[in-house]
Design goal:
This protein has a domain of 92 residues. The chain has 191 residues and is mainly alpha-helical. α2 packs across α3, α3 packs across α6 and α8 crosses α9. 62% of the residues lie in helices and 0% in strands.
């Protein structure tokens, strides 16, 4: 058998291409549900309507919608749920609803797996975002900085100053008999 150099090279290339194609597994070819911009926008609106914060920028809601899509694409059952949920949002023109109408619609679907998926993913992803922590005044975990005893235990600058007044009934009780106040003070000292 006489093989020319050209036939040998051509045969080698064809064999390597064939072997590389042999390794492709069609079951691993994925279709990602909710990956187009329109679907992402619908999910962002839904996340914002479920957990509304006027002063939050779009960024945390974009990350949250991406996580809703990512977790919704794990497993065929989740993909079906996510696909049906997004299609139902499109069918009712959810993207054009105002907050009052969208809240009413979300109230109707709150027992669905789709709504529960979006709600449970949003509460974790949105409030676990350091950007959101800054907007809410949370300084983050203190464990790695020695705990809250030495850092932040009494840091209540985000709360208004407490109003300290005597209760009117206590004042009346103490004024009724001046000896009562002295007896209470003595009791406190002995304990």
């Amino acid at each position: 058998m006489n093989i020319s150099r050209r036939n040998f090279i051509f045969g080698s290339i064809a064999s390597s291409v064939f072997i590389s194609l042999w390794d492709i597994d069609p079951s691993k070819a994925e279709i990602k549900i909710g990956d187009n911009p329109e679907d992402k926008k619908l999910l962002m609106k839904m996340c914002r309507d479920v957990y509304p914060h006027d002063r939050f920028p779009e960024g945390p809601y974009e990350k949250t919608a991406a996580d809703v899509i990512s977790k919704g694409n794990k497993g065929s059952e989740n993909k079906a749920m996510l696909s049906e949920g997004i299609e139902s949002l499109k069918k009712v023109k959810y993207g054009k609803m105002n907050f009052k109408k969208s809240t009413k619609y979300l109230k109707k679907i709150e027992s669905s797996k789709f709504f529960q998926h979006v709600r449970s993913t949003t509460v974790v992803t949105l409030y676990n975002d350091p950007e959101v922590w800054g907007l809410l005044g949370y300084e983050g975990a203190s464990f790695d900085k020695g705990g809250y005893i030495n850092r932040g235990f009494n840091d209540l600058d985000w709360l208004p100053e407490p109003r300290i007044e005597e209760h009117p009934d206590l004042a009346a009780f103490l004024k009724a008999d001046p000896n009562r106040l002295a007896a209470i003070e003595e009791m406190i000292k002995t304990n």
